[in-house]
Write a structure and sequence with these properties.
By secondary structure, the chain is mostly helical. The protein is built from 17 helices and no strands.
């Protein structure tokens, strides 16, 4: 029986496993912002709470070693998928209550813990069950289906929420109170759909996900694992240029941290409030169609660009492109164009810049920060610091947005991008950087 499982083609489980990895992250981080906006929650509360509940994805390296001590990696993948599915059902049901925000946001915090644990275990299955050759062969598949989850959630489901709201009687530009019942019904169905998808994926993976482990045989105590974790962290902070590198990791995405939560709220807000007044259907179409295509194109072009000229020569230009979309959003906030194609161009610029520029940060962490005896752990640690650098400004972004208004907020974001550009321009390289095919 075990041999049959081991021979199962990775194409039967890699796409679905990484789709399941992407769905909770996107649903909590992005889709929920539209829901809360439609249900009358302020930008300050939306940005703060949907940022702070992302903390498990920042700190997941702290408990990742302990997952090796109990059961199997497949056990945690299936458990967390089923748990996340049930909890998304709780989020959907919570919209029936007047105090839905407290229930839903606390439930999402538990989903975040479950989702971060799922990421650790899912990557563990991928590395344990596939040969090095197959890992390289299917790396594009896992990335593609993670982003397909983003396309489905932030594109298709958001657009569907808009259509459902209209079906239930919502009218664009009507008062929030008049539209509230329709939006509650629409978003309840959307999160119920996410719940069903996650549960079905969990049930599918009970049968399909491979598991070459016969069960966990504990070879190390919790104390030994903890001492190893402390050693890994200590070695990280003794790396050459590490203080500079930490500043770089945080500041590279600092401006993006402010924009990530506010940009969708700006697109959705009424024009009288300084927003663009787009419908959910329009936002879902622009994000899911044109935005996703621009992201993929940007990522591919950045890969070619860096492989041709090397990271050292291209890093600053990658950072410039990464921050270019903030200029586009500033212009959109100043002029508030009504032409959907002009607005779409700004969204395309955002996704292209993110796809193109993010490659620089990822490769720098892999090639300049991670190398050493604890390469995988140090890369995970650097990624955690990076997420923290996005989370902290994200928590404050709603406060600044409500205080300044959208136009002045995006001007402020342009100023927040300057430190990252300066740090990137002068950053030292520890290891030789050569353009490689």
């Amino acid at each position: 029986m075990k041999n049959t499982v081991k021979r199962r083609s990775p194409i039967t489980w890699v796409p679905t496993a990484y789709f399941a990895m992407g769905m909770p992250f996107i649903a909590i981080n992005l889709v929920s912002t539209f829901m809360f906006k439609d249900l009358g929650i302020s930008d300050t509360q939306i940005a703060f709470w949907t940022s702070i509940i992302m903390m498990p994805w920042t700190l997941k390296f702290l408990w990742s070693p302990f997952l090796e001590m109990y059961k199997t990696k497949k056990f945690f993948v299936v458990l967390t998928q089923l748990l996340s599915g049930l909890l998304f059902g709780v989020v959907a049901f919570s919209l029936n209550f007047d105090y839905f925000f407290a229930i839903s946001i606390s439930t999402m915090a538990v989903i975040a813990l479950s989702g971060a644990t799922h990421d650790i275990a899912c990557d563990g299955v991928y590395m344990a069950e596939l040969s090095l050759k197959d890992q390289a062969k299917y790396i594009g598949v896992q990335g593609a289906f993670y982003n397909i989850a983003k396309l489905v959630a932030n594109g298709g489901l958001v657009a569907l929420a808009g259509m459902l709201a209209e079906h239930f009687g919502a009218v664009e530009n009507a008062s929030m109170q008049d539209n509230m019942p329709a939006y509650k019904d629409a978003w309840m169905l959307i999160f119920a759909v996410i719940s069903v998808m996650m549960i079905l994926l969990g049930l599918y993976h009970i049968k399909i996900l491979p598991c070459s482990q016969s069960g966990n045989h504990v070879t190390r105590s919790a104390g030994e694992v903890m001492r190893e974790l402390v050693l890994v962290i200590k070695n990280f902070f003794t790396k050459k240029h590490i203080v500079y590198y930490i500043c770089f990791i945080i500041l590279y995405r600092f401006a993006e941290g402010f924009v990530m939560k506010i940009a969708p709220l700006f697109l959705r807000s009424a024009r009288d409030d300084g927003g663009l007044g787009l419908s959910l259907t329009e936002i879902g179409t622009l994000n899911g169609g044109f935005g996703s295509a621009a992201f993929v194109l940007g990522s591919l072009l950045a890969g070619v660009y860096v492989s041709r000229f090397g990271l050292k020569k291209t890093l600053f230009s990658l950072c410039c492109v990464f921050n270019f979309p903030f200029i586009a959003y500033t212009l959109l906030a100043i002029y508030q164009p009504e032409n959907i194609y002009v607005i779409g161009a700004g969204i395309v610029a955002e996704y292209f810049g993110y796809g193109f520029g993010f490659v620089g940060l990822t490769l720098f962490m892999m090639q300049q920060i991670a190398p050493g005896p604890h390469q995988m752990s140090h890369y995970a640690f650097a990624s955690g610091i990076m997420n923290l650098g996005v989370m902290l400004p994200g928590m404050m972004s709603g406060f600044f947005s409500d205080m300044l208004g959208y136009r002045d907020f995006f001007i402020y974001v342009l100023l927040a991008a300057i430190p990252g550009l300066i740090v990137t321009y002068f950053i030292p390289f520890t290891y030789n950087d050569e353009a490689k095919k």
